[in-house]
Task: structure prediction
Amino acid sequence: MTQPLTTLRHRHLLGLATYSPEEIALILSTAREFREVLRRQIPRVPSLRGLTVVNLFFEPSTRTRISFELAEKRLSADTVNFASSGSSVSKGETLKDTARNIEAMKVDIAVIRHRSPGAAYFLTQCIDAVVLNAGDGAHEHPTQALLDLLTISDISPRFDGLNVSIIGDIMHSRVARSNLYSLTKMGVNVTLCGPKTMIPFGISQFGCRVTHRLEEALEGCDVAMALRIQLERQDTSLYPSLREYHNQFGIKPEHLDRYPSLRIMHPGPVNRGVELASEVVDHERAVILDQVTNGVATRMACLYLLAGGQNPASLAEIG
Result:
């Protein structure tokens, strides 16, 4: 019988395309331990004490940045925040120059969010620090997919045979790509749904089903993951109007009535009345806020394991 992993095989977390199911399972089990830490009266452990983490956010973010900052503080790491607005980047400094300056500061872990696909990989070529991708263009957003998996595991303890539909702008969504990689590796049946203009050609080769009808995507579905319309990543409008999109692909209260076991997820921020009706966002079967909570624990697990930590058998081993 194969023994479960206790350490990651990868040095960086650039995406989930190359991560094995065993590594993903290791991150999830570690995240569950850290979720218990967050429930303590003093939700802090000394796991990364003495290490410095820099958050390089070249793209606007609120949820992801705060989640990473909180995860780092809960692990007792020294945190440095860098935003491109008002920095040397706005004065013409390149990513490579910024990386070299960061390297000179003797940083241990770099968390990067960038509008260009491949930016996280490029950073690994410039610095010796561990690199964690917090979203690079329309490429990948691995920690979002991992926290989504953790949330789904609370709904169903078994991934095999579970039906998850991802609905929306698949073409421009790094969340969709990372979720597609991770979900299929864990044995989940994935359906992608959206307008034809928002579904990449040939994506079914990655082991998913594709439909352009919302009802078909929701029939027999255990979890529906609605994606935010990526207006900032589109060169042209890919649908007639937001109202038209909501009419055809927005999840509404009647869908919750029709499918009584359906759970709703969304990576946020939600465009109310577009991807989800407002009543759906606030419904008890929407686990959007659970995703936010799980995000801190998941990012704690990723930082801890990438820093060389081993999967703790108990909370006592992490403080």
Notes: The mean pLDDT is 91.
